[in-house]
Specification:
The complex is a heterodimer of chains A (405) and B (377). Chain A has helices at 2-16, 27-60, 90-123, 128-142, 146-158, 196-223, 229-247, 272-299, 302-310, 315-345, 349-352, 357-368, 371-400; strands at residues 174-175, 178-180, 183-186, 188-191, 252-255, 257-260, 263-265, 268-270. Chain A has 405 residues and is mainly alpha-helical. Among the domains of chain A are: 14-60; 90-144 and 274-400, MetI-like fold (Orthogonal Bundle), CATH 1.10.3720.10. In chain A, helix 12 (357-368) packs antiparallel against helix 13. The two termini of chain A are 18 Å apart. By secondary structure, chain B is an all-alpha fold. Chain B is built from 15 helices and no strands. Chain B is flat. Classes of the chains: A mainly alpha (405), B mainly alpha (377). Chain B: Keywords: Cell membrane, Membrane, Transmembrane, Transmembrane helix, Transport.
Chain lengths: 405, 377
């Protein structure tokens, strides 16, 4: 940047008269000495830290290394998306935790984005009531620590819900929807033979939709004729899988939850920990996204709107074709960092007992005492996630960015 | 009539009927029409929002005020089918929420430290009060030393171990130490990241990106579990101090990025001018670049402070009792256990955090407006 050039100039100026002045005034010599000192100090710190750690570990009788990953974990995990029992290895437990983190982060990002955009637009509404409501939402949620919100949802809202029995659920009866202190119970869709055809149809329609979009854009560029891609695509997406559903003889059935003894069985259960984490993360992050969206739209100058109106473009199309594409360029970079924040904040799950990566590795740490290995691997995972997300968002940002001279 | 229709020229021969007056645009009715019922869609939105508010607000008011329990000595008062907030719980535990288990007879020291802080903060926050430099020095150097002496108990004061500290005291200690350390460290890191010395730059980039890439909770775990391993045998840090180190390093990385934004916004001419005046790098930075860069990013700095203040609540996960931690701990007190106790405690803690964070954000918005007019001139 500018400074670097300025520095370079001063460096070369210094080099010219180095014969006349003393060596300590030569910026190159100084820079060299300074950096050498820095390396020595940092290397010394790292070295002394490592030798201390080595001594301390030996004294505590802990063998360093990642061998413990192959040992039996011996603890249960409440929610897992891959097969896991307490006989599985630590490595598998680790992946279960990672999977849980990713699941809650992806779903949280989805909800936070949707709520954030709605609230952000509401803050710009001409309607007084809507605008003030959105303002109060944003100011309240973003000024209260996320951890407090998570604990509130978990301990003050979801945990004090009545138990299934107290809600008057008859033992054995089938329940389509129930929110109680065991979680949210919904029917589960059970696929039977031939159900995969429906899935394949849906995927095929998505592919067709994509190709159709490309073709329509090409045609519009060439001839100016438009094609209703969205309506066609959505229609196909609903009709064809439905057709496949009936053709294959309706191979999907619903499995309802029911009460047996004190426990709910069957059905599709969303655990209170997961719900509290999802609620907290998405509502909190949405308040930040709302502010980003608002700032992004305000950043598009009013002249753009007026120009669009002057061309006779209707208000709805104006926002879709003129305002939003320009606002997105302002919105996307800070949006990326909010997505990263949400992913990192999902580590607060440890406070409410959702088995995310930090929570699982915390248990592993307590059982094995391998603090260095466990914590460094956890940090490495988050670093990788951060770098991957920002790489993806940078690519996306580049694809929507204004091409300037 | 016949005559008028044949003529091309139009001459009015009678008065036109008066048109109706325009619909009212002032007053309450006009305001309502413009802001709530301008279009059919607006009307629908207004009605929906109104219904939502009607669904939320009366129960909240009922819970917080009408059905709330204001006095009582134990859980008996707060157990009942329709009790609202149990404010008696907050009242009974208020001392703990503020001071933690700090000895009763020594609490004046905490109060005095708080007073010293306010005495430094108020004048620096009001733009028209002079002696800003002395004031900043007081806040950054003199006050931390005084507060350290008062709180830990040096020079003949009775020592108070940090495990006894708690509540708002710990929250403020963590936040203020984080702020005071992260500010100069952040400036150094930001300068380092823009340095022309490749190794310095590389270290700073790695440092910043590392801390920004990991969650604070893993940083706290690291400082509480891993840090003792890297220290020589016999050297051990206090638990609070370990958390402080973690928080300070973490927030200095964020601060560095904010300040770097300010440095990048300074036109190249300013750097060149500083060089042309034969100022050394540090003179130029101190006298020309930093004053402008910091002024530009005051809102960003305050936002980092707000984030840091909220993040202090995470120390409860490594077993320190900050405001949220002590509120949560007191919820399990058998004397006060009731279905409404958790909600009451959390709402109280949320209110305290909200006051601080909202206050800071309002102040930052005020400063932004103040500095903005300076720029538009």
């Amino acid at each position: 940047m500018g400074t670097d050039m300025a520095h370079q100039e001063s460096v070369s100026a210094g080099a010219d008269d180095s014969g006349r002045a003393s060596l300590i005034y030569d910026p190159r010599v100084r820079g060299f000495v300074f950096q050498a000192l820095l390396i020595i100090v940092v290397a010394g710190l790292v070295w002394s830290g490592l030798t201390n750690a080595h001594d301390n570990l030996q004294r505590a009788g802990i063998a360093s290394g990642f061998g413990f990953f192959k040992e039996r974990a011996g603890f249960d995990i409440g929610q897992s998306f891959i097969h896991y029992t307490n006989d599985s290895t630590y490595l598998r437990a680790f992946f279960v935790g990672l999977g849980n983190t990713l699941v809650v982060a992806v779903i949280g990002i989805f909800f936070a984005t949707v709520i954030g955009f709605i609230v952000g637009l509401a803050r710009l509404s001409k309607n007084y009531l809507v605008r003030k409501f959105a303002t109060v939402y944003v100011e309240t949620l973003r000024n209260i620590p996320l951890l407090l919100q998570l604990l509130f949802w978990y301990k003050a809202v979801l945990s004090i819900l009545p138990s299934p029995r107290a809600m008057g659920i008859e033992p054995g009866s089938e329940i389509a929807f129930s929110l109680n202190n065991r979680g949210l119970y919904l029917p589960r869709i059970v696929p039977e033979a031939g159900a995969s055809l429906i899935l394949f149809t849906a995927i095929a329609v998505l592919a067709v939709w994509f190709v159709l979009g490309r073709w329509a854009k090409k045609r519009q560029m060439a001839t100016g004729q438009q094609f209703p891609v969205f309506v066609t695509g959505l229609g196909l997406f609903i009709v064809l899988p439905l057709l496949a559903f009936f053709v294959t003889g309706m191979p999907l059935s619903l499995e309802y939850a029911s009460l047996q003894g004190f426990n709910m069985v069957n059905g599709w259960v969303i655990q209170p920990e997961f719900m509290a984490l999802l609620l907290g993360l998405s509502l909190y992050t949405a308040s930040f996204i709302a502010e980003i969206v608002r700032a992004g739209i305000l950043a598009v100058s009013h002249g753009q709107t007026e120009a669009a109106y002057a061309l006779g473009i209707r208000p709805n199309l104006t926002s879709r074709l003129v305002i939003v594409p320009q606002a997105m360029r302002v919105i996307i970079p800070p949006l990326t960092s909010q997505y990263l924040n949400l992913t990192k904040n999902s580590s607060l799950a440890v406070a409410i007992g959702y088995p995310d990566l930090v929570s699982v590795t915390g248990t592993v740490l307590n059982q094995t005492g391998q603090a260095v290995e466990v914590i460094s691997i956890t940090m490495l995972v988050y670093l990788t996630l951060s770098l991957l997300t920002s790489a993806f968002m940078n690519w996306f940002n580049a694809s929507v960015a204004l091409v300037e001279r | 009539m016949d005559h008028t229709t044949k003529s091309i020229a139009y001459v009015r021969t009678e008065e036109t009927p008066r048109s109706a007056p325009p619909s009212k645009s002032g007053g309450v009715g006009g305001w309502l029409k413009e802001n709530l019922f301008a279009t059919p869609r607006d009307t629908v939105l207004t009605i929906i929002t109104f219904l939502v508010l009607l669904w939320i607000i009366p129960p909240v008011i009922d819970w917080a005020f009408i059905s709330a329990v204001w006095t009582g000595d134990n859980r008996e008062a707060c157990i009942g089918p329709d009790t609202g907030a149990c404010w008696a719980f907050v009242d009974a535990k208020f001392g703990q929420f503020i001071y933690g288990r700090y000895p009763l007879e020594e609490r004046w020291r905490v109060n005095l430290a708080g007073l010293l802080l306010v005495a430094g903060l108020v004048p620096i926050a009001i733009p028209s009060v002079p002696y800003k430099r002395e004031n900043a020095l007081y806040l950054l150097i003199v006050f931390p030393v005084l507060a350290f002496i008062l709180l830990t108990g040096q020079f003949g004061l009775k020592p108070v171990e940090t495990p006894l500290w708690g509540g708002l005291l710990v929250t403020l200690v963590v936040a203020i130490v984080g702020i005071v350390v992260s500010f100069p460290l952040g400036i150094l890191l930001a300068l380092g990241r823009r340095s022309h010395m490749p190794i310095v730059k590389m270290f700073c980039v790695i440092f910043i990106e590392f801390w920004r890439g990991v969650p604070l909770i893993t940083v706290l775990f690291m400082s509480s579990v891993m840090l003792p391993l890297f220290l020589p045998d016999g050297v051990s840090f206090d638990k609070l101090l370990r958390a402080l180190i973690g928080v300070a390093l973490f927030s200095s990385a964020y601060m560095a990025e904010v300040i770097r934004g300010g440095l990048q916004a300074i036109p190249k001419g300013q750097y060149e001018a500083a060089n042309a005046m034969a100022l050394t790098f540090w003179q130029g930075t101190r006298l020309v670049i930093m004053p402008q860069a910091l002024k530009l990013v005051i809102p960003g700095i305050v936002n980092t402070f707000i984030g840091l203040f909220k993040d202090t609540s995470l120390v409860l996960i490594i077993g320190l009792f900050d405001l949220l931690g002590i509120v949560q701990q007191n919820m399990t007190d058998p004397n006060w256990i009731s279905p409404v106790t958790p909600a009451t405690g959390f709402v109280f803690a949320a209110f305290v955090f909200f006051i601080f964070c909202f206050g800071m954000s309002r102040y930052s918005a005020y400063m932004e407006r103040r500095l903005d007019t300076g720029h538009k001139r």
